[in-house]
Amino acid sequence: MTLAAILFGMAAAGGMAMAFIRLSGKDLPPMWLALLHGLLAASGLVALALAALAPGANSGARIALGGFVVAALGGFTLFSFHLRRRALPIPLVGIHGAVAVTAFVFLLVTILGRA
To answer: Whole-model pTM?
Structure first.
């Protein structure tokens, strides 16, 4: 789960950068940043799924996994806008980020609760 948290943390840095770019008035962030963000988040999702779906895994990890799956669906939707070169909808950017941050908090609480 620690690897997942590190990967999601790096993905969050890219996500915040993209959100700031969008909120500054640009319709789209650079494609390389969107791809890097998605790659890091997808890698974190796989790492978390392996830990959360293992026998005896903490329920907090499963809750975090569910939240990140919902965030990923929002991310796929946002990426579809990017591919069509359409402005990212600011409300969807906000919802995607809020869901991901909430899932990240669940993940951190789960990790720290095990220490």
So the answer is: 0.93
pLDDT tens-digit map of 78-93: 999 999 999 999 999 9
Distance of alpha carbon 73 from alpha carbon 33, whole angstroms: 18
Tally of CB atoms within 10 A around 22:
19
**Domain range summary for the chain, segments of one domain joined by +:** 2-114
CA atoms within 13 A on the CB side of 105: 6
Do 88 and 28 contact (CB within 8 A), yes or no?
yes
Task: Report the C-alpha gap between 26 and 93 in whole angstroms.
Answer: 13
User: What H or E segment, with its residue span, contains residue 89?
Assistant: none
SS (H, E, C) 43-73: HHHHHHHHHHCCCCCCHHHHHHHHHHHHHHH
